[in-house]
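Worked example (supplementary).
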Amino acid sequence: MLKIGILGGGQLGRMLLQAAANYPVITHVMESDPECPAAHLCHQFTRGDIRNFEDVYQFGKGLDGISIEIESVNVEALEKLESEGIRVYPSPSALRIIRDKILQKQFYKEHDIPTSPFYVTQNRDELRKHDGFLPAVHKMGSGGYDGRGVQILSHAGELHKGFDAPSILERKVNIHKEISQIIAMNRKGETAIFPAAEMIFDPVHNQLDYQLSPAEIPQQSLWRIEAIALKVVKDLKTPGIFAVELFIDKNGDILVNETAPRVHNSGHHTIEANYCSQFDMLWRVMLDYPLGNPKQILPSAMVNLVGSEGQSGEACYEGLEDVLKLENAFLHLYGKKETRPGRKMGHVTILSTDKSDLVYKARTIKQKLRITSKQPV
Amino acid sequence: MLKIGILGGGQLGRMLLQAAANYPVITHVMESDPECPAAHLCHQFTRGDIRNFEDVYQFGKGLDGISIEIESVNVEALEKLESEGIRVYPSPSALRIIRDKILQKQFYKEHDIPTSPFYVTQNRDELRKHDGFLPAVHKMGSGGYDGRGVQILSHAGELHKGFDAPSILERKVNIHKEISQIIAMNRKGETAIFPAAEMIFDPVHNQLDYQLSPAEIPQQSLWRIEAIALKVVKDLKTPGIFAVELFIDKNGDILVNETAPRVHNSGHHTIEANYCSQFDMLWRVMLDYPLGNPKQILPSAMVNLVGSEGQSGEACYEGLEDVLKLENAFLHLYGKKETRPGRKMGHVTILSTDKSDLVYKARTIKQKLRITSKQPV
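After joint prediction of all chains, the assembly is encoded as:
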C-alpha cells in the first residue's frame, strides 16, 4: 500500500482522511497540535512544524507521496524530497509561484491569463508613487492568509496603511460575481473540471454569506471560466487539485483573482453534491487511479460555520438542533476545541433542485446557529 | 463532548467512524486486532476481547454510550454498564433476544410478527421427530454468523446433517424476493424508515449477486413491509438502528427472516444514495440529535467485493482501474490486509436513475474485479 503524507491537520486534512478510508492507502499527517482536527483519523500522526525544513524532510522521506492543506509549508524540504523521488502534490515549483502573491500575479501576466492590472511595490515609499492607480488592493507578497496581509486603499490619504514590504498593488475590480473553479490534473495531464461555484456576499457586512453551485452565470461565461482555469492549471505544470478563484466584473470580463493548489473551502459541497468529491479526486490523483466524475448530483448551497464575534474559548454550538432538523442539510463540524471570532468551525451543505429552498435554508442556518465559548472573553 | 464506544472494529465500525467525524463526539473502539479496519479512525483504540466480560466492562465504564457492530459481544457486561447509567445501543435485553435465534423466532411468534412456521429442537434426536416438516432450514440458536450454523434439510435422509445443539427448524420459504428494511428509532420512540432494498441472487450459484434500492415491489407490499419492520423495532423497545430482513414468498406473503440490531451490509448504499446514511443516522440517535432524512437521492445498486475462491493471503485488487473508471460508482475498500475466499473486502455503490445502467455496472464490477492473494494458497 502507498504511504501518503499530508502537511497540516486542519479541516481539509480531516475531510481528506474521511475520503482516504475508501482506498488502500496508509495515511500520515504532520501538525504541531496533536489535538488538531485530522490527528486521530490518520494511520500515523507526527508532531512537527510544517514550516521547518528538518521536520518536513524527516516526515516525508519514508513516504511515497506528500500533499499539503495549507501553502505555508517548507518548500525547500519538499524540493529535496522531490529530488529523491517522492511525489509532491502540488510540485514545489508550482507552490513557489503560488505562495508568493508577486510571483503568482507575474505568472498570470506572463502566461496571458487575464487578471487585474498591477504594480509590484517593494516598500511603502514605492507605493506612494502609484497614487494615480487607486482605488486598489494592496497584498503582501508572502505571509498573508485568509484575509490577513490584504488592504484596500481607496484614495491617496490611505497610502500610509499599505505594507512596507514586497507587495502587489492591484486595481480594484468592479465585481459583479466571485466564482471558484475547481480542477484536478493527474500525472498524465488528464483533467477533471468541477461545475463552478458562486460566492454570495452579504451586501451589508461584505462577508461571504453562502456559496451556490452551479454558479448562475451565462453559459458563455462558464466556458470562458473553465478555459481560463484550465490554462492556469496546465501552465503550473503539476498534478494535484486546484481552486481557481475568479471575478466577473461589471462589464462581464473574467479575471483570475488567485489560485489555491490544494483542496479548498469552496469545494466542500462536492462531498455530497458531486459524484466525486474534491477530496476523493485528490486521492485518485495521488494513488494514480482514473480521475472521478466531477459532475453534480444535485444543486447545492454551502454555509461556513464560523466562531461568533466576541467569543473565544471552548466551543459551544447553540442552535445545532435547528440545523440538524433541516431536511437535506449535511452538517460537518471540524472538532476544533476552541472557537475564536470568524474561525472556521464547520460547514453545512444543502442539496435541493429548488434555488429558493437552498437560499432559505442557508439563511436559516446562519440565523439559528451560533458558535460561542462557554466562558465569553 | 460525548464519548461513544463501538465493540468491534470491522468495516461497519470503519464507516461509522467516517461518519462520526462530522459530529462533536469522542470515539472509542475495542477489538482484538490493532490493525483492524476501524482501529486508526477512532480517537482511542483499546485492544480487547469483545466477548470477555471484564474487557467490555472496563472499556465501557468511562463512556457515555456504547454500540456494537457485531452481535457476538458480552451481554452481561453491557447489562452491568446499562445499570450504571451508560446508554447501550441496542439495549442488552433486545440484544439477548436477537442473538439467540430461538429467542428471536419465539419473539416474532409472541408478537404476532409474521415469520415461517418452526420447531425448537434441543438436539439431533429431537430433530428426527420432525421428518414430516421438511424441506426446512435448521439454524443453531447461537454461534451462527454469516451463513455458519445454518443447514438446509431437504428430506429425511439429510437429518443426520442437522445440529446436535439447541436449534430452530423452520419451514423453507418458497422465496420470491428477499428484502431488507432499515429503520432507526431514537430514545423518544421516533422512527426513520429507509426505502427498502432488494437482494438479487445469482440463480446458478444461489449467492447474493447485488442489491437494488428501492426494491421493485408493489406499493402495497412496501407498506406492509414497513409496518411489519416497524412493529419489530417498536416491540424490541430499544433505540438504535435495525435491518429487518424479510422474504416475500411466491404467494405474495411477507415473512420476517431475521433482524440485525445495528448498521448492516444491506444499508451501505445509504452513504451516497440517501440524504442521511445508516451510519449518520445511528450517530444522530446516540448523540440525541433529531433523526435525519432517510429518503433516497437517487436509485442505487450495491455490490459486495469479496475475496476470490482459492485465494488466501495478502490482498491484491485486480481490475481496480476498471471499477474506478465507471462513472457514478463509489468504491469502498475496507483496508483488510488479508483476503480469504468469500471475505467481505469492500463494496461499490452505483447511482443511476436508469435501472439497466445499475444492473450493467453491478455485473461489470463483479466480472472485472478479483481480490486475490499475492501468494495463492
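Two points are worth noting when inspecting this output. DSSP finds eleven helices and 21 strands in chain B. Chain B has four domains: 2-89, 117-171, 177-297, 298-377.
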